[in-house]
Amino acid sequence: MTDLVARACDGDEDAFGDLYRAHAGRIFALCLRLEADAARAEELTQDVFVHAWERLRTFRGESAFGTWLHRLAVNVVLTSRRSTWRRTRRVITAEDPAIFEQAADSPGPGLRLDLDQAIAALPAGARAIFVLHDVEGYQHGEIAALMGVAEGTSKTQLFRARRLLRKALER
Amino acid sequence: MNCDAARDLIDPFLAGTLDAAGRRDLEEHLATCPACRETLEDATALRPAAAALPRSIDPPHDLWPAITRRLSRRTSRRAARPRWQSVALAAAAALVLMAGSSALTLWVVRERGTPRAASGATPAIEAGYVTATADLMRALDAERGRLAPATVATLERNLAVIDAAIAESRAALAADPGNRDLEALLWASYRQKVALLQQASRLAERS
Question: What CATH number has the domain bearing residue A146?
């Protein structure tokens, strides 16, 4: 455990501020790619660091602080999605099933996209699995456990996401 | 080898972790399966591009001042304010809505005509609400220990009121299937339950 992390674990808010400055970009990038919404990503980044501050006492230094924080961030984003957005969406979906297939932000036809823009336009479930697997390097078993889906679903959604991305990028 | 087994091997193949026998089996399958070849092409195109994305993106704003404010607020709130107030307010609103809903159900049954639902989608819609509220209840149960006992008691009391309204609407609908006014009342009750559970979950998460 580094001196900075040890000081933060002891309640030193200045040390925790230094940790925020060192890791905010990494956490914001993760939240932004998972949620495809900059304002929401800012809120979630705040949530991650508030949770991290409260749970620092549970950090044992068995992994690097950055790894621990990253895993915490994935949990915060997915828990937030499970407890609010996804369920609300499921309720709406029950009355309008077509919404399941709607992309977060469908680009106009013929628009040339870069990869991050194309990822943002994926349906939310496929987007999360693509980001966790292909960008962040999680395995299907880990993703299935984190998202509460079957491992086969994770694989199917990954293939689907890649197909949609390739089509979008080749337009 | 079938397509599912072949697709399981595509990522290990591209990562160079597939053994010689696996490579041979995959290549034999790919030679005869255009769909899996396309899946391989998707992965070949996307994996390196995804791995090359920047791992760090600076937030548009410095979030640290807001984070420190939240840390301070949480500390002072724990000391100063009874946490059940927000839920109690929401629950009071739920009680008012449900009392109105109950009266409306009676009025619809007794006085109104019976506009018919055209879609016949009632069971599917209700199943969606039932799943959503069950998911929320499970999430809330996991966090219930973080709420004050008074909050939990208020929440449970008002959930019981909403459930009674749901049961009443369902009974009325069973006697008059396809009545769209009754369906609208039933969905309103479910939406209120979802909203109350979501608010309680958010409160528990912040506690």
Answer: 1.10.10.10
CB B88 within 8 A of CB B154: yes
Measure A62 CA to nearest chain B CA, in Å.
Answer: 23
Same domain? A8 vs A82: yes
Type and span of the H or E element at A144: helix A140-147
Q: Which domain holds residue A153?
A: 104-171
For the stretch A115-156, pLDDT in tens is: 999 999 999 999 999 999 999 999 999 999 988 899 999 999
User: Residue length, chain A?
Assistant: 171
Interchain contact, B135 vs A38, CB within 8 Å: no
Tokens read off for B157 = 């009391």
Question: Where do the domains of chain B lie?
Answer: 3-51, 80-206
**What is the value of ipTM here, to two decimals?**
0.80
Q: Is the pLDDT of residue A28 over 50?
A: yes
pLDDT at A90 over 60: no
A100 vs B contacts (CB less than 8 Å) = none
* Percent helix, percent strand, percent coil in chain A, to nearest 5: 75, 0, 25
Based on the fold, state whether residues A125 and A155 are members of the same structural domain: yes
> A92 Cβ partners below 8 Å, 6+ apart?
A99
Region for A148 from its dihedrals, namely left if φ exceeds 0, alpha if ψ lies in -120 to 50, beta otherwise: left
**Which residues in chain B are closer than 8 Å to A113, comparing Cβ atoms?**
none
Per-residue DSSP letters for B84-106? Answer: HHHHHHHHHHHHHHHHHHHHHHH
Q: Which of these, A85, A89, A117, A91, lies nearest to A101 by C-alpha position? A: A89
A81 and A3 fall within a common domain: yes
Do A146 and A136 lie in a common domain? yes
Same domain, A61 and A135: no
Structural domains in chain A (count) = 2
- Co-location of A27 and A89 in the same domain: yes
Say what the pTM is.
0.59
A18 with A62, same domain? Answer: yes
A4-A5-A11-A12 Cα dihedral, nearest 10 degrees: 20
